[in-house]
Write a structure and sequence with these properties.
The complex is a heterodimer of chains A (263) and B (326). Chain A is mostly helical and 263 residues long. Helix content of chain A is 66%, strand content 2%. Chain A has a single domain, classed as Ferritin (Up-down Bundle), CATH 1.20.1260. Chain A has 11 helices and 2 strands; from the N terminus they run ααααββααααααα. A two-stranded antiparallel sheet of chain A has the order 1-2. In chain A, strand 1 and strand 2 form a beta hairpin. Chain A is globular. A two-stranded antiparallel ribbon of chain B has the order 1-2. Chain B is globular, with a radius of gyration of 22 Å. The chains are: A mainly alpha (263), B mainly alpha (326). At the A-B interface, helix 2, helix 3, strand 2, helix 7 and helix 11 of A face helix 2, helix 3, helix 4, helix 12 and helix 13 of B.
């Protein structure tokens, strides 16, 4: 593998794993969303997001990293490059047993991620690695609607009851503390942006802040400083127990019969 | 010729006029006059169908993240999303019917939580392995296609239109299920065994799915009323026979054994002979006392309660905006 290919893969792992885990956390909400209409809309978004992960895994497969299913189902937690905030559980309990999931946290995490994803896709449109240009264009058409969805939730909940406002503000602080990990390009960030695969971390951050503050302004909210990375940097393979348990669920059947050729 | 306003007709005249429309295969719409018996039969049928679609997502939900490949993950996500969509569509149809009675979605959800509103027997059952995701999609959806196709020509227009879309999507689900089943049936011995065990687990529930032959079996039935008003055209037994004719050869072709040694086609009677399911058990299951009833109803009820603040917030937001708009 050439050095350049290493950095290309590094970036694509980040994109693939972010979408893969984010979609998984979303899919845990299935049947538990605040109303049935949201269940339908949210599961459509999760399905699209899993599709995006799949497209990125396909790029990795072309780069000789392994098959799509090996990449998604047969890697150790330390090999995952997703940001920590995206692996965090939706709340206490499991998706089958007494889930006490936090809708405010979900809305904020999806909104923050959605805004960054949009910025990343715009930047990938100019990538020096052509396959990323094609993939990002395909994803962009769907992403537009996803972001609109989360912006609607955000606005409505922020401008509703005091209870909702409090929960939303708490969720903002919580996600803010770790969202720096999603913006991060990891230890090879400089090489990745020098190769013009995607904009630099600083550029991504300042554009994200500009757009997020714009959204905050509309509901009379403000926050100082940059988002943090308190729990560590997932881009460098640092993860929590939440990722380990998520991966165990995601690959339970895959690992249940090692002789199986087809599923 | 003297014309009389419809509102001036006696109840009996209205009823006769309504039955004429039914006999002429006209479609009844939500705002049309309808006898209470017809409205109640529709509410019972459609609310239970709608809530079954929604509760039906739960046994499969377990397998959504666990699906063994990315493509399987994508297809089962799409499938369960469709089921939710069907539930939403049917609950909307039902909402128009219950509105004149001063009832709404919240009442329907509460009826589910208090077990007043019943859902299909199959969705009270456990789905402990990946093969259950296959059997559910192939055979439960296959059974559902038969009952739903039968009702496509139902006399109630909004239900018929919802069913048209539902049936189109269900046929994709059955294909998805067929593909899952085929992969396991042609897989390793473990995969085959898992599939056989799942079929054993589901067989009786599948036969029960169509309901009892006659009301003697469980004490009551809405089949007669539903046929009278042309909500449905076939009896439970006719549908069960169709199911057996369609699926028994396919199941055998896959090398699976149907767990009923008495099962055979009687050439003289031209019907399938099978071991009668335990209808007492059926009644118990649909009353909300099946193996997974409590757990699944609790999952729905607790999440509904947990998200109450969100629904309150949305109501407040829309209230405020109405005020601003006015």
């Amino acid at each position: 593998m050439t050095k350049d290919n290493k950095y290309i893969s590094e970036l694509i792992y980040q994109l693939a794993d972010d979408n893969f885990i984010h979609s998984y956390r979303g899919s845990e909400w299935l049947g538990l969303a605040p109303h049935i209409e949201e269940d339908v809309a949210f599961s459509s978004i999760n399905q699209d997001t899993m599709g995006h992960a799949s497209m990125y895994f396909e790029l990795l497969e072309t780069l000789g990293e392994g098959s799509v299913d090996e990449l998604s189902h047969n890697r150790k937690p330390k090999d995952f490059r997703n940001a920590i905030i995206l692996e965090e559980a939706n709340g206490s309990g499991t998706y089958l047993d007494q889930p006490e999931y936090d809708w405010a946290f979900t809305v904020i995490r999806h909104l923050f991620f959605g805004v960054l994803k949009e910025i990343r896709l715009e930047s990938l449109n100019q990538s020096s690695y052509e396959p990323l240009i094609h993939t990002s264009r395909k994803i962009q058409t769907e992403q537009y609607y996803h972001l609109m969805h989360w912006k609607t939730w955000f606005t409505q909940l922020m401008l509703s009851t005091q209870e909702a406002r409090d929960k939303m503000e708490q969720a903002i602080s919580r996600v803010w503390r770790d969202f720096g990990g999603v913006i991060s390009l990891g230890k090879y960030g400089k090489e990745i942006s020098d190769l013009k695969l995607i904009a630099s971390e600083d550029e991504l951050r300042s554009e994200w802040l500009r757009r997020i503050h714009q959204i905050f302004d509309q509901v009379g909210f403000s926050i100082e400083g940059n988002p943090g990375m308190e729990q560590g940097n997932g881009r460098n393979g640092e993860h929590t127990e939440d990722l380990t348990s998520a991966l165990n669920i995601l690959s339970e059947v895959y690992h249940s019969d090692i002789d199986a050729v087809t599923w | 010729m003297v014309t009389v306003r419809f509102s001036e007709l006696t109840e009996e005249e209205k009823y006769n006029h309504f039955m004429e429309r039914i006999e002429n295969d006209e479609k009844i719409e939500a705002d049309d006059w309808m006898p209470d018996e017809y409205r109640n039969a529709l509410i019972k049928l459609i609310s239970s169908h709608g809530i079954s679609e929604i509760m039906g997502a739960l046994p499969e939900k377990e397998w959504v993240p666990k699906a063994p490949t990315i493509n399987r993950k994508l297809s089962i996500m799409a499938k369960v999303q469709d089921e939710m969509g069907h539930g939403q569509l049917l609950l909307r149809v039902n909402e128009d019917l219950i509105k004149p009675l001063g009832r709404n979605r919240e009442n329907v959800m509460n009826d589910l939580f208090t077990k007043k509103l019943k859902f299909h027997n199959v969705f009270h059952m456990p789905s402990p392995t990946w093969a259950d995701a296959a059997i559910i999609a192939w055979l439960v959806d296959g059974a559902a296609i038969l009952t739903q196709t039968m009702m496509l020509k139902t006399s109630y227009g909004p239900y018929g239109r919802a069913l048209k879309r539902i049936c189109q999507e269900e046929s994709f689900h059955a294909k998805h299920g067929e593909s899952l089943t085929l992969a396991l049936a042609s897989g390793t011995s473990n995969q085959k065994q898992m599939l056989q065990e799942s079929l054993n687990r589901w067989w009786e529930s599948l036969l029960m799915f169509f309901g009892p032959k006659s009301k003697k079996d469980i004490g009551s039935s809405s089949v007669d009323i539903n046929i009278k008003y042309k909500l449905r055209t076939k009896t439970n037994e006719q549908l069960r026979q169709e199911f057996l004719t369609k699926y028994v050869p396919k199941i055998k072709l896959l090398g699976l054994t149907i767990p009923d040694e008495t099962l055979r086609f009687d050439e003289e009677k031209e019907e399938w002979i099978y071991r009668e399911p335990d209808w007492k058990k059926f009644k118990q299951v649909v009353s909300g006392n099946g193996p997974k009833s409590e757990e699944r109803i609790a999952l729905r009820r607790d999440s509904y309660k947990n998200n109450e603040w969100v629904r309150n917030a949305l109501a407040a937001y829309h209230q405020k905006n109405r005020v601003f708009a006015g």
